[in-house]
Structures are given as structure tokens and as C-alpha cells.
Design goal:
- With 444 residues, the protein is of the alpha/beta class.
- The chain has two domains: 47-284, Type I PLP-dependent aspartate aminotransferase-like (Major domain) (Aspartate Aminotransferase, domain 2); 290-440, Aspartate Aminotransferase, domain 1.
- The chain is built from 18 helices and 15 strands.
- The protein has helices at residues 8-11, 13-28, 41-47, 69-86, 98-109, 136-139, 156-166, 184-194, 206-210, 244-249, 253-265, 271-284, 287-309, 335-344, 372-376, 381-398, 407-421, 425-440; strands at 30-31, 58-59, 62-63, 90-92, 115-119, 142-146, 170-173, 197-201, 223-227, 238-242, 313-314, 323-327, 347-348, 350-352, 366-370.
- Strands 4-10-9-8-7-5-6 form a seven-stranded mixed sheet, sandwiched between helices. It has a four-stranded antiparallel sheet with strand order 11-12-15-14, covered by helices on one side.
- Helix 9 (206-210) links the parallel strand 8 and strand 9.
- It starts with 7 loop residues before the first helix and ends with a helix.
- The mean pLDDT is 96.
- Bound molecules: pyridoxal-5'-phosphate.
- Residues 35, 97-99, 102, 126, 128, 174-176, 201, 203-204, 227 line the site of pyridoxal-5'-phosphate.
- The site of pyridoxal-5'-phosphate has 14 residues, from helix 5.
């Protein structure tokens, strides 16, 4: 018999040890990257189940492989739960992740060379929203990129003018680093003014939409894409949803989307992920989850107020959702150095461009942080105040560092600053306070 019942630690000590270390790291730090979260043990159980052994190319009850009678039921359940939760007539749960899901929408509804309009990466958009030159969305489509105002907000009147000027076939609305609410109705009017398809990419805010703390795009857009692993708190995956409006516009839209996912872009779905999505959707269809989503937003508000109270600048002046972007142009330090210092202090975030950033993308002027994961641990307003104060303390500690003017000196400089930071008594002192706080709020 080739298979064995041996557990990981008897087979691969190296990987087992690294997983254990990562588990401990996730426990001992404040995970504040806004696209991350902690899934439930039930979601993890499904991810690690025997479903990973199965092949099921095709869709429920129309597979290219035998032995799918249970997989069919699992996928049917996932689809039914998503339809109910988001109020949509058609759902595809097979996209491997958010990027292939967005690609599938473009391939379903557009021809190569058609015009798409999406938010610039540096303004908070995603690579798949038409980022030029280096991504499929910027290479195979004519990409019109919109920007935010100096204060970081989207100017809807300007968006309409840009759409009328550039006549896109599809407009994508959704972001990775935008702290404000989307006005879906205004975007619909813009899309209608030029006859464009409207795609809402709610990857970041899906959980907030379910919790009723962000308006749903469903009444206004044609297609909704969401990843399942951010505020939705499911496994790494994605869903594509066609709305009533989308079906009215093109009765074959659901079929086109499904064909673009399989066989257009993908082969067999990851059935273990499908099951985990179904479980996450069940967990999200509860009052407890709705309360969680509300708390995520409340926490972000308190954290943003604490940071501004400490004299820090946030893009758009604050937040309405789960995340915020701190702008270090007033201090002059780069985001990389702050991000490393925060990690030394046990607070994990990511460096990020700010709108109209004068610095290059690898040394941007900001950081992005959010509250989904720490709220999953049960932290509330009181903890946000502590965390905000620590973050401000860390920033003060490193605000004097300046990136060298000469490009060739930058990497060495940042490298040596990082080494210094890991020896900083002040930062390590904060890390031990963070660890104490984390102990009171266990991870799922
Ligand atoms: C708005 C948005 N769309 C798409 C994606 C892509 O998702 P994935 O990383 O799963 O490919 C992301 C991921 O960060 C995102 O934030």
C-alpha cells in the first residue's frame, strides 16, 4: 500500500515545523493586512479533506468525470447559499481566485482589444483592473485608468466625463485600498451613459455587504466578483455572480460567464475549496456574522480616529469601511521602513502607494491597514485605541529615516535600517505588549 496513515510530523519535519512556526506567528501578532482574515476550524477542515483528491471538470450534473455525485451536491449547496445571501439569480463558485475570476468576466463579455475602464493601481485599484503593460488586463484590452482626487476620493462627475470620452465596453468598480463607500447608482448611470457593462469587484467588502454596512451593488451592476478569503472569511477562492439586471441585458450572460471559467480559463474546480466556500457562506448567513461585519467597521473608525488624533494623515481623511491608508508624505519616511518597524513591534500591515505618490511603487509613501482579522479575534474599540497608540509610537520611532536620493543606494540603505530595527528595544518592547494583548484574544 502506497498511502500511509502517518501524520505530517513523521513524514516531513521541516514543513511541519514551518507550519507550526507560522501558526505561532499568526497567534502572536496583530494581523492587520486588510485582505487577510482567520477562517474557522470548519472551513480549514473542509480545505484539508479528501475532497482534494477528486477531479470534477464541468458543472454539477454535467461533469466530464465519474464519481461526482457528492461533489455535485456540495457545489449545488455552495451556489444556493451564495444566491440567497447576495440575492442573485446566478452564481459560479469555481474561480480559483480573484484574478482568474476577473479574467473570466473580461473573456466572457469582451473581445481582445475592447476598452475597459478601471481604477489605477496607485490609487487603490487592482492589477486585474487594466494595469498597463505588465498584466493581461492591460495587454489584451485597451485600458483606460481612472484616478482619485488629491484627497484620495473618487470624483464621480469626472468619471462620467472620462467614460463618455473613452467609451469603455466594461467598467470595473472595486478596489484594494480605498477607504470609502461606493455609490453604485452613480456608477450605473455612468455605465448606461456609454452602454458599458458594469462589474463590481467586491473582493474586499463582500463581508461588509452581507453585514449591511456597505450598500450592495446587486441592484445596479451586471456582474459581481468577490474573492472568498477577505472580509467574507472563507477559503482562498472567488465567486462570480450575474444579477437580474445582467441577465436582462444579455440573457446568455450566465452561460457566457460559466463557459469563460470552464473550459475557457480553468480545468477542474478545487472541490475542497468549494466545500469550504459553502461552509463560509453558512457561517456568514448568521446574526453573529452580521455583528462581526458591523464591528469591523466600528473598529476601523476608532482606529482611524486614534491615528488622526496622533497627528497622522489618512488618505480621504479617514474610513467608512474596514481599511485605511496612512500617508507619510508629511513625515518623509517611506512605507517600507514603517512596515518593517511595525512588524518588529508585532503589528503586520503592508506598505502601499498613496494617491499621486511621488515615490516609486517599491518605496511608496504609505501603509495600508485594516481590522477584519483582529475583529475576528474579538477585539473591540478599547483595543483599537491601544493599537492606534502603538502604531503612532512606532511611526515616531522611524519618522526620521530618509530614502537616499541615489537609486543605487536605496536597497542597501533600507536593508541596513531593517537590521537596525530588529534590535530596537522600544519596538521589541511594544511587541511584548502586543503579544500580551494577543493572548487575551485567541485565534480561531
Ligand atoms: C479588489 C481585488 N480584486 C481582485 C483581487 C485578486 O484576488 P487574488 O489575489 O485572489 O487573485 C484582489 C486581491 O487582493 C482584490 O483586492
Amino acid at each position: 500500500m502506497i498511502t500511509t496513515t502517518k501524520k505530517l510530523h513523521t513524514i516531513d519535519l521541516q514543513i511541519e515545523k514551518l507550519i507550526k512556526l507560522e501558526e505561532k506567528r499568526q497567534r502572536d501578532v496583530l494581523e492587520m493586512i486588510p485582505s487577510e482574515n482567520y477562517v474557522s476550524p470548519a472551513v480549514r477542515e473542509a480545505m484539508g479533506s479528501v475532497l482534494t483528491n477528486k477531479y470534477s471538470e464541468g458543472y454539477p450534473h454535467k461533469r466530464y468525470y465519474q464519481g461526482n455525485r457528492f461533489i455535485d451536491q456540495i457545489e449545488d449547496i455552495a451556489i444556493a447559499r451564495a444566491k440567497k445571501l447576495f440575492g442573485v439569480p446566478h452564481v459560479n463558485v469555481q474561480p480559483y481566485s480573484g484574478s482568474p475570476a476577473n479574467s473570466a468576466v473580461y473573456f466572457a463579455l469582451l473581445k481582445a482589444g475592447d476598452t475597459i475602464m478601471g481604477l489605477k493601481l496607485s490609487a487603490g485599484g487592482h492589477l486585474t483592473h487594466g494595469h498597463p503593460t505588465i498584466t493581461f488586463s492591460g495587454k489584451y484590452f485597451r485600458s483606460i485608468q481612472y484616478d482619485v482626487e488629491e484627497d484620495g476620493t473618487i470624483n464621480l462627475a469626472k468619471m462620467k466625463d472620462l467614460a463618455v470620452m473613452s467609451n469603455p465596453r466594461l467598467i470595473v468598480v472595486g478596489t484594494t485600498a480605498y477607504p470609502r463607500i461606493f455609490d453604485w447608482k452613480a456608477w450605473r448611470e455612468t455605465a448606461d451613459a456609454v452602454g458599458a457593462f458594469l462589474l463590481a469587484d467586491i473582493s474586499h467588502i463582500a463581508g461588509l455587504v452581507i453585514g449591511g454596512v456597505h450598500p450592495s451593488p446587486v441592484p445596479y451592476v451586471d456582474v459581481v466578483m468577490t474573492t472568498t478569503h477577505k472580509t467574507l472569511r472563507g477559503p482562498r477562492g472567488a465567486m462570480l455572480m450575474v444579477t437580474q439586471r445582467g441577465l436582462k441585458k444579455d440573457p446568455d450572460m450566465a452561460g457566457k460567464i460559466d463557459k469563460a471559467v470552464f473550459p475557457g480559463l480553468q480545468g477542474g474546480p478545487h472541490d475542497n475549496v468549494t466545500a469550504a466556500i459553502a461552509i463560509a457562506l453558512k457561517e456568514a448567513d448568521t446574526l453573529t456574522f452580521k455583528a462581526y461585519a458591523k464591528q469591523v467597521v466600528k473598529n476601523a473608525k476608532v482606529l482611524s480616529e486614534t491615528l488622526t488624533g496622533e497627528g497622522l494623515t489618512l488618505t480621504t481623511g479617514g474610513t467608512d469601511n474596514h481599511l485605511m491608508v496612512v500617508d507619510f508624505r508629511p513625515q518623509g519616511v517611506v512605507g517600507n521602513i514603517v512596515a518593517e518597524a511595525l512588524e518588529v513591534a508585532g503589528i503586520v500591515i503592508n506598505y502601499n502607494a498613496v494617491p499621486h505618490d511621488p515615490n516609486p511603487p517599491f518605496y511608496p509613501s504609505g501603509i495600508r491597514l485594516g481590522t477584519p482579522a483582529i475583529t475576528t479575534r474579538g477585539m473591540k474599540e478599547k483595543e483599537m485605541k491601544h493599537i492606534g497608540t502603538w502604531i503612532a509610537e512606532v511611526i515616531r520611532e522611524v519618522a526620521h529615516y530618509r530614502l537616499p536620493q541615489a537609486k543605487e543606494d536605496r536597497s542597501k540603505f533600507v536593508g541596513s535600517v531593517k537590521k537596525e530595527l530588529w534590535r530596537s528595544k522600544n519596538l521589541l518592547g511594544i511587541a511584548s505588549q502586543v503579544k500580551k494583548l494577543c493572548k487575551q484574544f485567541p485565534v480561531p
